[in-house]
Each structure stands twice: as structure tokens, then as C-alpha cells.
Write a structure and sequence with these properties.
Elements (H helix, E strand, L loop, with lengths): L1 E2 L1 E4 L15 H14 L3 E3 L7 H13 L5 E7 L2 H11 L5 E8 L2 H7 L4 H18 L3 E6 L6 H13 L4 E6 L6 H18 L4 E6 L6 H10 L4 E4 L13 H10 L1 H4 L1 E2 L7 H12 L20 H9 L26 H13 L5 H18 L4 H15 L1 H8 L3 E9 L6 E8 L2 E8 L3 H13 L4 E9 L8 E9 L2 E9 L2 H22 L6 H7 L10
Parallel strand pairs: 1-10, 2-3, 2-9, 3-4, 4-5, 5-6, 6-7, 7-8, 8-9
Antiparallel strand pairs: 11-12, 12-13, 14-15, 15-16
Bound molecules: 3-methyl-2-oxobutanoic acid and zinc ion.
């Protein structure tokens, strides 16, 4: 099967997103993760734009040994090419990337020169780059709006001058798939005739949401290489998203007669790293990397999924590094999904009447809360126990934390937090200081719950617009090598932060509880099943 080269330009085109600037260490961290993802080429920056950019490209080129090809961008002028050369010359496999426009708009408006003069600039630039390094990529900027014969004349001339990769950018997202596919086929037929060692590449922007489609149709029509970014970030509406292009190929290799060598299980981790370091949230319904990309909430889908994953799942979440498919229950989830979720918690069958009673309570709760997570189910069972007899209820209630009250003081001298929580009949309280209000809050909560947890991720976003907007806190804790995700919503974001932390903690406790053989006496009695010697905690 034909191998498709993947160039990742998250650190160059992606970093052009306003507010997404990274420091040198953050760039190195992303580059190292891109190497784990096994991209073929990393475009690490645009060295002539600043000394800082040059230094970070240099750092990446020096650090990634036996890894991907390292490239950086230059305009078709000697000083830019020198800056790229200085920054990548110590890479194991360096590549100089030159860009110059070929459309009438670029030639006439941007350069105000004749077409022949611009073409000559490009050829001179390639010759100069070739005098420094053997591998040179030439990008015909705004190719999709260029006159075909001038575009081809340029490609022919730069290939004769020594370019080893020809990149066809849809710089402004003007292309449409069918037309772009034809353009790539036409170029590829001539190019392979001219020199079949030269790779044909595409670089598509997403101004009308077609970047992935245009990239994939280009592959279908002969492109050897694709240029992408994680989460599709980049100039304006962004670039083709690496995860979409790569998973598109992986899903339909027979159709494309091509495959990439990306380690797809690293996709989610790379996406998160990029999103966290750049401070750019991923749209929740974003294909492959969005928070909801593998979450099924409709009853019909959940039911089908539980009978057979193939019914509604074309990509296995674990293939892109997503731990587990999450079924978020709603009022529309249906009996089957509810039963499956309860079975995860109880590890035993409920009697028909108990199930019906619990299901009715679940629907009431779902109407109120909209989204039901595992810890909500636990509360549901807890309350059901309460109705059945005080002993069982007490035993179950003992296992979970509940926020009673808090006071958090934010100042730049000594931020502090005092928190009171309840666990069963016991009230626990403590105070602590920290670097900031959230740090103080989480320090005191960690002390109270007395569990070895590490905060991996913490995010606040607003659930609705306006001044009464609710704040949603999303966090991820790590405990015993496992990740626990929790959310909480409140108009008070500090309170939401505390509740999210306790929700995650309760999940840790819950997880221990559902390990086989860890059923409490109360649950065992209720279920009429066997009880192991271990309690919930
Ligand atoms: O969009 C574009 O044309 C580019 C080139 C530098 C490839 O980013
Ligand atoms: Zn671009």
C-alpha cells in the first residue's frame, strides 16, 4: 500500500493562531510528542520571524535524534533561507521549506513583478537552498487560485533546480474537493513523468470547512504527502486536522489505496497537549479529538452500541488513545443503557421490581440534571437503599464525600481555603494556603480525602452566555495510574471547582467499590448476593 507522508505544522501554521504563542520548552514538549505520534516531518517554525523562533527550531532540531525530518519555513529570499539553515542544520534529517506565490493576485498585487521575475526568484531560492542542504520543499502559495500553465511552469522549473518536494497549498480555503482532486491528478501525472522521485504534497486551509475533504481527495488522486495540524488549528479557520486525515485513511485504506505510519493511539494525548499548552479549547463535537467524539447519549444509539459496538462506532476509541467509551446517560437513554450502567456499579442483577423502581427514579433525576454520570447513579442507589432500611443507607452513604461549605480567600499575599465536607455521619474540615485560590482549595481537599491524587487537567468554561452564566469546571485526577474525569456546574466557580474535585474523588472510591469482590455488606444484602471481606474504601 502507498505510504502517505505526514507533515505536522502545528508549531508553524498552528502557532500563527492569535494568542497561541508558545515558549521554547513548550515547543520542545510538543515536538517530542509529535515524534511519539510518529509524524514523518515536523515543521518547527518560521526562523526569520524572530530570534526566539530561530532558537526554538534549533533546540528541536538538536533534541530529536533518530526522529522525524525537521523543517522550517523560509520566504524565497536568501536571509530567510539562511535563518532556516542555521536553525535546522544539526538535525539528523533537515529539510528547507521555501514558499512563494503563484496566483495572479500574489504575483501582481503582492510582489508587483512580472510572472517570469517571480518564477526566477523561486528558482534562485531553490538553487541557493540546494547549495546548503540536499532536501528542499517548494510551496506554490495560493496554488488553487493560480493559472494552471503558470503553476506547472513554476513546478517544472523548481524541480529542475533541485526541489525534492512540491507542495500545493490551498492557502485561502478556496478549493472544492472534485476540482482540487482533478488539479492534483493533473499535476501528479506531469510531475511523475518529469521526476518520479519528487513527492507531491498538499496543504489545505479550512475556510469553508473543506480542508480534510480536500486533503483526502488529493491523496485519492495521487498526493504522496499531507500537511496538517493537531485539532485543525492554524491561520484563520485553520488547517486540515491531522487526526481526521489520518483516521480517514485508516478507516478506508482500500478506498484510498494508501496508509500513514502515524501511531494513532497517541492522537488524543497529542491533541490534549497542544490544546493545553496553546490554551485553545477543542470544540466538544470535533471529530476524533472532541470531548464528545466517542460519547453516545441517545437511547437508540446506546442500546445499539451495547448490543454491538459496530452499530454506531466506526472507530474504536482506544485506537486514538481514548480510554473508554463513555455512555453519558440522559432521560432518553432507555432501559438497556441504564441497566448496563447499573450493572457496572453493582456487578449483580437487580430484581425486576427493584430495577423498575430505580429506573423511574433515574428518569426523575435525569429530567432535573440532564446528564447522569456514574457518581449520580451511585447516589441514586444510595437513596434507594435509604428507602429500604436505615442500615444499608448508612453503610452506602459512608462511602462518598459531600461538600458542606467553604470559604476561599483570593489575594496576592496568602490565598487560603477552608473547607467542610461530610462523609457518612462524619464532618471533616481543614484549612490550607496555596499559590492561588484553586491551589489552596485543592490542597485542603487533598488533605481531607487523604488520597494520593495528582491534578492532571483543570478547565473552567461558561455553560451559557450573559452575566448569570453558569461556570463549568472540568478536571482530571490521576490516582493509582488511572485517570478520573469529573465535572461540576455552578454559578460560583469556586464551589464548582470543589464539587468537581469531590466528584472525581467519589469516582475513585466508586471504582474501588466495583472491583470484583469489593461489594459492601449493605449492597450484598440488598442484592441478595455474596459479600467479600472488603469494604468499599
Ligand atoms: O497556507 C499556506 O500557503 C502556507 C504555506 C507556507 C505552505 O502556509
Ligand atoms: Zn498555511
Amino acid at each position: 500500500m502507498r505510504k502517505i507522508w505526514v507533515l505536522d505544522t502545528t508549531l508553524r501554521d498552528g502557532e500563527q493562531v492569535p494568542g497561541a504563542k508558545l515558549n521554547i520548552f513548550e515547543k520542545l514538549q510538543i515536538a517530542q510528542q509529535l515524534a511519539k505520534l510518529n509524524v514523518d516531518i515536523i515543521e518547527a517554525g518560521f526562523p526569520s520571524s524572530s530570534q526566539g523562533d530561530l532558537e526554538s527550531v534549533k533546540k528541536i532540531a538538536g533534541a530529536l535524534k533518530d526522529g522525524p525530518v525537521i523543517t522550517a519555513l523560509a520566504r524565497a529570499v536568501q536571509s530567510d533561507i539562511d535563518a532556516v539553515y542555521q536553525s535546522i542544520r544539526h538535525a539528523d534529517r533537515p529539510l528547507i521549506h521555501i514558499v512563494l506565490g503563484t496566483s495572479n493576485i500574489h504575483v501582481e498585487k503582492k510582489f508587483n513583478r512580472s510572472k517570469d521575475a517571480v518564477l526566477e526568484m523561486g528558482v534562485d531560492a531553490v538553487r541557493y537552498a540546494k547549495s546548503l542542504l540536499p532536501e528542499v520543499q517548494y510551496s506554490t502559495e495560493d496554488a488553487s487560485r493560480s493559472d494552471f500553465e503558470y503553476l506547472w511552469k513554476t513546478i517544472e522549473a523548481v524541480v529542475r533546480a533541485g526541489a525534492t518536494i512540491i507542495n500545493i497549498p490551498d492557502t485561502v480555503g478556496y478549493a472544492v474537493p472534485e476540482e482540487f482532486g482533478c488539479l492534483i491528478k493533473r499535476i501528479n501525472d506531469r510531475l511523475k513523468n518529469l521526476n518520479d522521485q519528487v513527492l507531491l504534497s498538499v496543504h489545505c486551509h479550512n475556510d469553508t470547512g473543506l480542508a480534510t475533504a480536500n486533503t483526502l481527495i488529493a491523496v485519492k488522486n495521487g498526493a504522496d504527502k499531507v500537511e496538517c495540524t493537531l485539532n485543525g488549528i492554524g491561520e484563520r479557520a485553520g488547517n486540515a486536522a491531522l487526526e481526521e486525515v489520518v483516521m480517514g485513511l485508516k478507516l478506508r485504506p482500500e478506498y484510498y489505496q494508501a496508509c500513514s505510519q502515524i501511531v494513532t493511539t497517541e492522537i488524543k494525548a497529542t491533541s490534549k497537549l497542544v490544546s493545553n499548552l496553546m490554551g485553545l479549547d477543542v470544540q466538544v463535537n470535533k471529530a476524533i479529538t472532541g470531548e464528545n467524539a466517542f460519547a453516545h447519549s441517545s437511547g437508540i444509539h446506546q442500546d445499539g452500541l451495547l448490543k454491538s459496538r459496530e452499530a454506531y462506532e466506526i472507530i474504536r476509541p482506544e485506537d486514538v488513545g481514548v480510554d473508554e467509551m463513555e455512555l453519558i446517560l440522559t432521560a432518553r437513554s432507555g432501559r438497556h443503557a441504564f441497566k448496563a450502567a447499573i450493572a457496572k456499579i453493582l456487578h449483580s442483577n437487580l430484581s425486576e421490581s427493584d430495577f423498575e423502581e430505580l429506573f423511574a427514579r433515574f428518569l426523575d433525576l435525569a429530567d432535573l440534571k440532564k446528564e447522569i454520570y456514574h457518581h449520580d447513579l451511585y447516589y441514586l442507589i444510595d437513596h434507594y437503599y435509604a428507602g429500604k432500611g436505615e442500615t444499608q443507607a448508612e453503610r452506602v452513604r459512608e462511602d462518598l464525600y459531600e461538600l458542606v461549605g467553604l470559604q476561599v480567600v483570593s489575594n496576592d499575599i496568602f490565598p487560603t481555603a477552608s473547607v467542610k465536607v461530610k462523609r457518612g455521619g462524619t464532618v471533616l474540615k481543614d484549612s490550607a494556603g496555596g499559590d492561588g485560590p484553586i491551589d489552596a482549595l485543592y490542597t485542603v481537599l487533598k488533605n481531607i480525602v487523604n488520597l494520593e491524587v495528582e491534578l492532571l487537567e483543570y478547565k473552567i468554561s461558561s455553560v451559557s452566555r450573559g452575566k448569570e452564566a453558569m461556570g463549568r469546571v472540568y478536571l482530571q485526577l490521576q490516582h493509582d495510574g488511572k485517570r478520573y474525569t469529573a465535572r461540576a456546574v455552578d454559578t460560583d466557580i469556586i464551589k464548582a471547582s470543589a464539587v468537581a474535585f469531590l466528584n472525581a474523588t467519589n469516582q475513585i472510591l466508586l471504582n474501588r467499590a466495583v472491583e470484583p469482590g469489593a461489594v459492601t455488606e449493605g449492597q450484598a444484602e440488598f442484592l441478595g448476593g455474596e459479600r467479600s471481606g472488603r469494604g468499599i474504601v
